[in-house]
Structures are given as C-alpha cells and as structure tokens.
Design goal:
alpha/beta; three-stranded antiparallel β-sheet; 268 residues; seven-stranded mixed β-sheet
Length: 268
Amino acid sequence: MTLNNYQFHYSFSGHPDKPLILFLHGFMGNIHEFDEAISLLSDEFYCLTVDLPGHGATKVLGSNECYTMPNTAQAVINLLDVLNITKCFLVGYSMGGRLALYLTLYFPHRFPKVVLESASPGLLTEVERAERVKRDEQIARKLERSIDKNDFIAFLSNWYSQPIFGSIKNYPQFQQLVEVRLQNNPIELAKSLRFMGTGCQPSLWKKLKENTNPILLLAGEYDEKFVYINTDMTQICDFCHLNIISHSGHNIHFENVRQFVKNVLILW
C-alpha cells in the first residue's frame, strides 16, 4: 500500500473478528519477526505485522527524513487509518519497542494496552545521544560495506555476539533467524540506523511520566542492560509493569517464545 512517501508491506493473520494486535519488529527484522509467537496467538487475536522503513519489502519513496521516528510513527498511524483501525493493542521489540513507546505516548487513544520487549525510552542527555550517534554511524558504514552475502553474514555473526544477546548463537534455530535477517538490504538498514537509531530518536523519559496506559515491560534475565533500563521505567511511571523472563537475553520471543506468549496473554 502506497501512502505519501511510503510503500508499506504488511500482513494480517488470525481471525478478523478477534481483538487486533499490531506487532512492530526490531532492527534487521521484518514481518516474519514474530511468526512463531503469532502462530500461538492467532486463535485469540487478529495479528497485523508491518515491515518498518528500511526493512523487508517496505519502500521509502521520499527523503531520508522519512526514516525518523516521528515520521515513521505518523506513517504507521496513517496506515492504520487507511485500514480503518481506530484502536488496537501494540507489541514492539527493541527498535520496534522504541517506536511502540513513541506511538503510545503521542497517540495514547489509539493503543489502550502495550507490550514492550527489550525496549527503552532512548537516552537522557545530549552527550549520551551524541556518543550513540557516532557509534551507530560506524555500524552503518559497516553495513554499507556488507553488500556481499558473506560479508552480511559476517556482520550478523558479529552483531549477535554482543552481550545483550546472551547465548542466542547456540540455539538450533539461530540459522533460521539469520536467514530472515538476510532478506533485508544492508543499505536500507544503514539508513534506518542513522535516522531512527537510539541516538537520533527523541528522548521519551519525561513524556513517559505522563503515561496512563498499561504498559507491560519484558526484559530477559541475561540482558542486564535492559533489565536496568526497564526497572528505571517502572520507577517513573506507575502504569509500567516489568516481568523479567528467565533463560532469555535480548530477543525473548525467539529464545523463550512460550513465556513471551504467556506474558502477552497476561495483559489481555
């Protein structure tokens, strides 16, 4: 579907007469990010997945500003409007979780209940954001040099060696995850990182204090960084509740899909 500066690729699954959940994937994901979880939820929900700008088969037709969080959020709202979806539940993972939080805080009437998996409100200070922008620029350049499939595979291997992902590379299904990531265009991923990375996004910490929508925060027990961030989120917002998921790092819905689904069902 073409909407202004975007040509969105999206998919529905489940029963149209059931409550609707919009799923927002993480960096380097696509509409298949939550396939296993959705297969376990589709009897109870109607599930909508969207390739975010820079990912999957969605195309950005305008300038690089179209990749920013505010513009991406408005584009998602426009897509929901065209699909005649006035309200829905919302689930976001990592980058998609940051976008989901932005949507929740700026369009609260559209998303009555929200699950954020391994997400954050961004960075508090200008210094932190500047440092993160510099780091993300280095990663973006590596992506731009990963046009060859083998180079992209090497990039992904290095990416998933980060401590936040725990032992994800030891899972038998890890190669399947890599194959999904390889469906992306590294040049487009670099644009997403430059314009919607954590350093570029608006800090949402102050606005989070105003939130009155129920938000369930999920963090993996091995992902100490996001356990710490999400604990801070619960301390400034009474409507945030944190569940720490055992035997998981950053990618909970991959490493412990049944606990992930169980927690999604808890909120509803």
